[in-house]
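Posting for a labmate who doesn't have an account.
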Amino acid sequence: MKHEEKYTQFSLVQEMLDTPAVLKDFSLDNAGEVIAAIQKAGKLFMTGEGSSRIFPAKNAIYTAMCQGTSLNLATDGGRQAAEYDLSDYVVFGASNSGSTKEVITLFNQLKGRHKHLYGLTARENTKLAEMARETFVLKCGWEQAVAATKSVAEQGLFYQELLAQANGNTLKGQLGGLTDAVEDALTLDIDSEITQAIANAGIIHFAGRNDGVAEELTLKTNEITRKKSDYLEGTYAVHGIEEVMESDDVVIIIDPFKGELDKIRETLAEGVGTKVYAISDQETIFPTIKVKDAGPLKNYVYLAAGWNILVEVGVVLGINLDKAERARKIGNEFVG
């Protein structure tokens, strides 16, 4: 994906290319109250739907767990969360529109008997803001394309910095390097054979950790390329899925576990005949889209590389990247 008219004619691509600047300029302001609430409660629940939850919440939990957090962190969608006892949790509801039905319904259930409800939106003066104790508004602005991109990255940084500050740390010193790595991942050349193989695939499988990256790219595949996709969590790719895979399927592994590469080659590449590719900061035994190492912020780089691939596939397929045929910008809007 380059700064060329065949790409930049789409708002989606322009918004993706805005992401490095969004990351570079990120700051978490006026969050003292919610940070103190998280420290006191020791529990944080992050809810939302689709792209407002998958990567932001799961990436935050993954990175915090890797760093040994003492906080109790959890996430699920609003409908399932409504069945939980969240009375001791600080609850964050993320909704770009501020009017996502599942989030509004949950907050309506919790308000009045729950002190710590917070919102994260991309708009001012929303229904969610009316119900939350405090609402934070993303600085990236409202996106025009159906598929959310730069807002996903900013939401991710918001939660990650929130947890860092709750533990007495900050991400500020790392954002410059992250910006460069994401810019590189967005604009690196994707081998045309890889692009064509993915464009021709029956199903595009993304395999990777339960950190939001592979799962979010699975969703983005539907919105951007209009192709069928599947998320293979963790090592699911070597635990029976080969029984129903076809030779025209493609598997894209995000930051693969080294100990599983030979098994994936044996069961999928050789056993089924699927084409397998990797996105990694190191070369692998498979054709690899190699990105820069960004340490604890690596997932933003993997996400950007995945966007790059999907844009290339969408362009090859001649798709309008901004306007899905059926999917809506606000998937399930609260009307009341």
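Reply:
Got it, the structure tokens are right above this. The longest strand covers residues 43-48.
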